[in-house]
Design brief:
mainly beta; disordered N terminus; 2 helices; eight-stranded mixed beta sheet; 27 strands
Length: 432
């Protein structure tokens, strides 16, 4: 009797010692499998494909063994036992046919008794159908001519939840594709990748049905249209002087000056871009333009300069604009013909927008004359050295053609004076 009592006490003590361990594991066992519904595909030497369903869950050192119970729904809509396994690992693999299943996991204690069980978790296994792609358009893409990243894919057995990706065959770059539109009757999809992530090269389009089977279509060629670009543009601008006077009072008459009018500026750009990376371009620009500034010198200090009378110079002479209160002494008229060579750095912001920054220097021919109420002087010429820099945004609504809005600062140094001005400009161009 004493021996039986000792055995009973031993088992009770063993159970009591194991309960804290199982209570700790049971806290995590009300959740479904960690990778529920995951699978992998096996291909044998004869290229036969087998889909393996992989069930796994979080492992614990406090568990002696697991029991995995799998049931399948029959024709009457009732679940019946499909398989039961006692395993030490925290995973189990099956090759299952299509249908509705459910599983639960039991935890054995050290007495070989199932102490804890998870609730049933239902799983749907669908039939995997291998997709096929018949056509992808466009198959040849010039990524520097407004490519928006869209493709049209036509095929067979493309599931509604199919996923696509492009793989660069040279670099291995993977570009995920979003489905924009789908026509299930025609098995036609419109997909889109991020065009700014594309690297030039040959790509393979991979399609994966929701059952896990894939199909690969190639080649898709995404390249630059040319190794270099030539850009020609014509535009108009309205320079604004950043100084109050052109030079010190010419006759030392203690007069006051202000820039009163500006003529419209016309310019032409020729840009050569020999260095083209995916998003960054480096090139050189030859720029030529022509415009005029007029500076009035008054006996009395004039009102502040304003934009209201800028256009008067285009249609009337300064003598016709005088009022009874004006006391002009003379006007200096300067016509500038700057020619500059600039270095350009361009960055593609989107398929339609390019940021252009530029800096450079050049020569400026200046025709100057002085106008008095009683007559004008002869035109005399001088040269100046110019330094210029600015930034612009190019918009390409379609291939090759672009519009540009830019702003430049220019400083021109002449033998006896200097000119500083800011030029907002708009131009139309063509990228060859």
């Amino acid at each position: 009797m004493e021996i039986k009592k000792i055995k009973i006490l031993f088992y009770i003590l063993l159970i009591l010692l194991s309960l804290p361990c199982f209570s700790q594991v049971a806290e995590n066992m009300d959740e479904p499998l960690e990778d529920e519904g995951s699978f992998y595909i096996m291909v044998d030497e004869e290229n036969n494909t087998t889909i393996v369903q992989h069930f796994s869950w979080e492992a614990s050192e406090d568990v002696f063994m697991y029991q995995f119970v799998l049931e399948k729904m029959n024709e009457n809509g009732e679940f019946e036992e499909y398989d039961v396994q006692d395993i030490e690992e925290n995973f189990v693999d099956y090759t299952l046919s299509a249908g509705e299943y459910r599983y639960k996991i039991g935890l054995y204690n050290f007495l070989d008794i199932i102490e804890v069980e998870t609730p049933w978790t239902e799983v749907s296994i669908i039939k995997a159908i291998k997709p096929a792609i018949n056509d992808v358009s466009p198959s040849l893409v010039y990524i520097d001519t407004g490519f928006d990243g869209e493709f049209t894919v036509k095929g067979k057995d493309l599931s509604e939840d199919i996923s696509f990706k492009l793989i660069n065959e040279e670099t291995g770059l993977v570009l995920a594709a979003d489905v924009l539109e789908k026509d299930m009757e025609k098995n036609r999809f419109t997909i889109k990748i991020d065009p700014l992530q594309v690297e030039p090269g040959t790509y393979t389009l991979s399609a994966r049905n929701d059952g896990g089977l894939t199909f690969e279509y190639s080649p898709l060629t995404l390249i630059f249209s040319d190794n270099f670009d030539i850009c020609v543009s014509l535009g108009a601008a309205y320079p604004l002087s950043l100084q109050k006077e052109l030079m010190t009072d010419y006759w030392n008459w203690e007069s006051f000056s202000k820039q009163s009018q500006t003529s419209m500026r016309y310019n032409a750009h020729f840009t050569f871009v020999p260095f083209k990376m995916r998003l960054n371009y480096i090139g050189f620009t030859l720029n030529a333009s022509a415009f005029a500034f007029a500076y009035d010198y008054y006996e009395n200090e004039p009102e502040e300069w304003s934009l209201g009378n800028l256009n008067m110079f285009l249609f009337t002479t300064w003598k016709d604009q005088l009022t009874a209160d004006d006391h002009p002494l003379y006007r200096i008229l300067a016509t500038l013909y700057p020619v500059n060579i600039m270095v350009n750095y361009q960055r593609m912001l989107s398929p339609y927008f390019i940021l252009d920054t530029h800096i450079g220097a050049g020569l400026t021919l200046i025709d100057m004359s002085i106008e008095y109420p009683v007559g004008d002087t002869a035109v005399f010429k001088t040269f100046g050295i110019s330094a210029t820099g600015g930034v612009g945004i190019q918009y390409s609504p379609w291939q090759h053609f672009y519009m540009e809005l830019a702003g430049d600062y220019t400083f021109t140094l002449c033998p006896t004076f200097n000119i500083q001005y800011f030029t907002p400009a708009f131009s139309l161009g063509w990228r060859f």
